[in-house]
Amino acid sequence: MSGSSAQQATELRRRATQARLRDLRMVYEAGLGHIGGEFSALDILTTLYFGVLRIDPLRPDDPERDRFILSKGHAAAALYTTLAARGFFDPAELDTFLAPLSRLNGHPDRKKVPGVETNTGPLGHGLPVAVGTALAGRLDGSDRHTYVLTGDGELQEGSMWEAIMAASHFGLDRLTGIVDRNGLQQGDTTERTMRLDPLADKFTAFGWSVREVDGHDHAALLETFAALPFETGKPSCVIAHTHKGHGVSFISDQIGWHHHVPTKDEYARARAELEAQLA
Fold it and tell me: Phi then psi for 278, rounded to 5 degrees?
């Protein structure tokens, strides 16, 4: 890895840690949220928004912008912190998360929040929308790219596999599906709930080109995204191996933190751990 690449990865790591601190505060003060899945996804979001996506916060409706869809819409706080840091709206607005009349709802709303491409929350909807978005780009003759981040538990929805099949059928090589493969979902592991492995083989069998990566390694993520599309004429799948609650020792890989709100003591401990990573 070159010196500039190493410097970029270090900066992305710092940004992701700052995002976790802000996300933690938002959930603590609101009394609601999904810290576990947000923390597993924040390195991916940070890498995309600060190192990959062709977007302009001053022109959020630019027809040639790349599209990003957060299919796991319950991780909205992670998206909001990232959009605010990228300049889509004033970071001070993050203080209103889940407050009455706030634009920052528990699920992202494209009519209210600049930078949000589509409303998500009901699992199994984001990837089908992304397939349509990528197909529309082809019909427009555009070279814009569509990225969609899904939860791994979300892949238990039948609509996901219909979309996966359609993306392959249409040869949407400007579509990239990213799986936040933290292995946990609400209440249990994915494998005890509904087995997904061998996941890469499943995507390959459906006609996608697949790569697996450490979803917390910013340099590896940058290298993976720089290689898109992995194969001409095929949609790309990035299986990002992550840890739910990554960044805080007592939250990481704990099922109970799917939508647990930290107590005062837990908040102080988590904040201290994250702040130490910035020291």
Answer: -95, -10
